[in-house]
From TrEMBL:
Belongs to the FlgI family. This is Flagellar P-ring protein. It is found in: Bacterial flagellum basal body. PANTHER family: FLAGELLAR P-RING PERIPLASMIC PROTEIN FLGI, FLAGELLAR P-RING PROTEIN. Assembles around the rod to form the L-ring and probably protects the motor/basal body from shearing forces during rotation. The keyword Signal applies. Keywords: Bacterial flagellum, Cell projection, Cilium, Flagellum, Periplasm, Signal. It comes from the Bacteria. Pfam families: FlgI (PF02119). Residues 1-23 form the signal peptide. The basal body constitutes a major portion of the flagellar organelle and consists of four rings (L,P,S, and M) mounted on a central rod. The gene is flgI. InterPro entries: Flag_FlgI (IPR001782).
Length: 370
C-alpha cells in the first residue's frame, strides 16, 4: 500500500503482474463460488419485549398490537375486546442466512430490526419467531436477548442518539429445525463461478487445476465459469475433489479500475491504470455578493419619509489552482496523484480532475464513482 498526502486522500495500489508470482497467488476458494455451495436467506416477523418504555406506540403501529394479541392467544390468554397500550414491546423483522450444509440443531446468528416507531431495542428479548425461506417453509426458530448497536438518551429539551439502537443482533439466536435437501454426493460435475468474471483468470484456473492433476479435469466455459469433472479427478467424493481443488493457487488478472468516493474524498486504483498524453488546468473561481442597504432618515420635524438606498459589494475572486500541466504518454495514475498532492490539490478537486481526464478519453481504466 502506498500513502500519499494530504491524509484525507487514501490511495491503495493494487499489486500488478510485474510483481513476483508468489505475491499475487490467490487460492481458488477465494476467487470462485462452488455451484450448490451457497446460503439461503431467512426472514421472520416477531416481537421484542422487555423494553424500558422505548417500544412502539400502539396507535402508530397497529400491527404490533395484532402480533401481541396472537402470541397471547396462543399462550392461552384471552384478550378479546381488551384495550392495552404497553410501551415495552416492539414489532421487528428478523433476518438470517442459512449456511450451506447446515444441520438440524445447529445455531446461526440473526439480525433484529424495528419496523414501527420504537426508539430503542436495548435490553429487549425476542419472543420465539419462526424464520421462513423463499419457499414459505420454516427452517429455523429465533429467540434470545437483543444486543443493540447504539444508545439513545432523551430529555425535555434535547435528544442524543449514538449508533442505531433500533437494530441489533442475537449471536447464535436461531436454531435450525429443517435442513436443505441437497445431495452433494450425487454430483458428476461442479461449476466454479468466478466472483469477478475474466477470461484470463478463468483460463488460468483451468490450467492450474489440469496441471495439478496431470490430466484434463477442468474446462473453461466462459469468462465466469469453469466446470470440474468429478469422475476425471478420481476422488472418493465431490467433497474430496473440492478439498483438493480449492487450495490450488492461481494468479488472477485484474481490470484497470479507478474507484472514487466523493463523500470521503477517497481514491482507489490499480497499478495497471494508464493515462495518455493530456494537458490539465484547474482553478477555483468565487463570486461574492454582499448586500448592505443604507437607510436615509428625513430631517427632523419634516414630513418626509425614510428612504432605503441599496448598496451592494460585488467581488470576483480566483483562488490559486494548478496551471496548465502536461501529462506525458504512458504515465501511471499514481504518478499523477503524487504530482497533484505535491501541488497541494484538495482531494475533491483531484476527483474532478480525474473525471475530466476520463471524459477527455485519456484515462484508460474503468471509472467508478460512488
Amino acid at each position: 500500500m502506498t500513502r500519499f498526502f494530504p491524509a484525507l486522500l487514501i490511495v491503495l495500489m493494487a499489486l500488478g503482474l510485474a510483481a513476483p508470482a508468489s505475491a499475487n497467488a490467490i487460492r481458488i476458494k477465494d476467487l470462485v463460488e462452488f455451484d450448490g455451495v451457497r446460503g439461503n436467506d431467512l426472514v421472520g416477523y416477531g416481537l421484542v419485549v422487555g423494553l424500558n418504555g422505548t417500544g412502539d406506540g400502539i396507535r402508530n403501529a397497529p400491527f404490533t398490537e395484532d402480533i401481541m394479541s396472537n402470541i397471547l392467544e396462543r399462550l392461552g390468554v384471552n384478550i378479546t375486546g381488551e384495550q392495552f397500550r404497553p410501551k415495552n414491546v416492539a414489532a421487528v423483522f428478523v433476518t438470517a442466512t442459512l449456511p450451506p450444509f447446515s444441520r438440524s440443531g445447529s445455531t446461526i446468528d440473526v439480525t433484529v430490526s424495528a419496523i414501527g416507531d420504537a426508539k430503542s431495542l436495548l435490553g429487549g428479548t425476542l419472543v420465539m419467531t419462526p424464520l421462513n425461506a423463499a419457499d414459505g417453509q420454516i427452517y429455523a426458530v429465533a429467540q434470545g436477548t437483543v444486543i443493540a448497536g447504539g444508545a439513545a438518551a432523551e430529555g425535555d429539551g434535547a435528544q442524543v442518539i449514538q449508533g442505531v439502537p433500533t437494530a441489533g443482533v442475537i449471536p447464535s439466536g436461531a436454531r435450525i429445525e429443517r435442513e436443505i435437501e441437497f445431495d452433494f454426493t450425487e454430483l458428476s460435475s461442479i461449476r466454479l463461478a468466478l466472483r469477478d468474471a475474466d477470461f484470463t483468470t478463468a483460463e488460468r484456473i483451468e490450467t492450474a487445476i489440469n496441471r495439478s492433476y496431470g490430466r484434463v479435469v477442468a474446462r473453461m466455459l466462459d469468462a465466469g465459469t469453469v466446470v470440474l469433472d468429478i469422475a476425471a479427478t478420481r476422488a472418493i467424493s465431490p467433497a474430496h475433489a473440492l478439498g483438493e481443488v480449492e487450495n490450488i493457487a492461481v494468479e488472477p488478472e485484474r481490470k484497470a479500475r479507478v474507484v472514487v468516493d466523493q463523500r470521503s474524498g477517497t481514491i482507489v486504483m490499480g497499478e495497471d491504470v494508464r493515462i495518455s498524453r493530456v494537458a490539465v488546468s484547474q482553478g477555483n473561481l468565487t463570486l461574492r455578493i454582499e448586500e448592505a442597504p443604507l437607510v436615509v432618515q428625513p430631517n427632523p420635524f419634516s414630513e418626509g419619509e425614510a428612504i432605503v438606498v441599496p448598496r451592494s459589494d460585488v467581488a470576483l475572486e480566483e483562488e490559486p489552482g494548478i496551471g496548465l500541466a502536461e501529462v506525458r504518454e504512458g504515465t501511471s495514475l499514481s504518478e499523477v496523484i503524487a504530482g497533484l498532492n505535491a501541488l497541494g490539490v484538495a482531494p475533491r478537486d483531484m476527483i474532478d480532475i480525474l473525471k475530466s481526464i476520463k471524459a477527455a478519453g485519456a484515462l484508460h481504466a474503468e471509472f467508478i464513482v460512488r
